Amino acid sequence: MGTDRPVRMSLQTLRVLEAFLENPRGEFAGSDLQKRSGLASGTLYPILLRLESAGWFLSRWENIDPAQAGRPRRRFYRLTPTGLARATEAFSCLSFGRGVPA
Amino acid sequence: MNAGWIDRVAQGVIGFAADHTPPALRARLREEWLADLPDMRGGWARVRHALGCCQAAMQIGEDCVPEGCAVASAALGPQPLLAIPGHREPLFAQPVASDAEACALCEINTTPLIDILLVLLVTLIVSLPLMTHSVRIALPQLGAHATAVPRPVIDLVIDFDGTLEWNGTPVAGLSQLQDDFRAASHQSPQPEIHLRPNRHVRYDTVAQVLAAAQRNGVRNLSFYNMGEFGD
């Protein structure tokens, strides 16, 4: 990934970014992000893929052996430096009142 | 509800959803969505997660460019549909009129509505067999048939002058009437005596007839021409 693609900034996207900005160095699985953002899976996963394709997120598999653990590996997402900068920029726009979502 | 049953349904729905994602993402999304399933607390949360994965699969399919998904083909560099070529602010995909509108795109989140619709649909599908389910009960059968034996009827007419008719036959006097009453009371079943007094007869005569019937054991006696006493 790593490409700086345009991202469609919606309220749901902002909620996902807000969940990441609470711990910018953290890695979160989809289920963690559902709890943190309050978004349903139908909304969350497409946003994660969009942001990953835009280079804002990096994802990796959980480092376990599924056969030994008895469960599938979880996919962890974390902010890239680009994503952190873009997310901060988006929220600073909102903070200065240049684009307040209705 | 049975948690194992719900888990199997949810896993099946997730597998169905993953099968409808772009091939490059199919295995990844299936494993990722299945891995997130146990973190959902409660059966309905898991069903909702699975149904949400169906919606996510549709959305991911819409987000993908014709030559492949944007995520899967990012390394190849195709232009995703989300991009607006030539836009001066790459952060936002929608063309905007001013900087004030540039930061956020406001849209209606239809996800909860679709979730509710899908949950209602599943609830309906699950509850329909319960509503149409019938319990087979062996009810006891009636052993004896009711005997409908018509009770004999005797018309006892008291004319305006006090003369009596027993089933159309004139009665000589009160003593004969008592004999008739006694004979009727000994019949089985006891006949119904329909008393039809004339409206001009003396009440004393009717009272004597009623007293004679009572004395001789008549239990089924009724007045039958009360319509002419109405006015």
Overview of the molecule:
The complex is a heterodimer of chains A (102) and B (231). Chain A has one domain (11-64, 71-95): Arc Repressor Mutant, subunit A (Orthogonal Bundle). In chain A, 50% of the residues lie in helices and 12% in strands. Chain A contains five helices and three strands; from the N terminus they run αβααβαβα. The termini of chain A are far apart. Chain B is α/β, with parallel strands linked by helices. Chain B is built from six helices and five strands; from the N terminus they run ααααβββαβαβ. A five-stranded mixed β-sheet of chain B has the order 3-2-1-4-5, with helices on one face. Mean pLDDT of chain B is 77; it is low at 74-103. Classes of the chains: A mainly alpha (102), B alpha/beta (231). At the A-B interface, helix 1, helix 2, helix 3 and helix 5 of A face helix 2, helix 3 and helix 4 of B.
Compose a concise summary of this entry:
Chain A is mainly α and 102 residues long. Chain A has helices at 11-21, 30-37, 41-53, 66-69, 81-95; strands spanning 28-29, 57-61, 75-79. Chain A has one domain: Winged helix-like DNA-binding domain superfamily/Winged helix DNA-binding domain (Arc Repressor Mutant, subunit A, Orthogonal Bundle).
Tell me how many strands of chain B there are: 5
Strand content of chain B: 5-15%
| Helix-strand category of chain B | alpha/beta
Outline of chain B = rod-shaped
At CATH level 3, the topology of chain A is Arc Repressor Mutant, subunit A
Average predicted local confidence, pLDDT of chain B: 77
The main sheet of chain B comes to: 5 strands, mixed
* Helical segment count of chain B: 6
Uncertain regions of chain A: pLDDT < 50 for 5+ in a row? 98-102
- The ordered string of helix (H) and strand (E) elements of chain A is HEHHEHEH
User: Can you give the mean pLDDT of chain A?
Assistant: 85
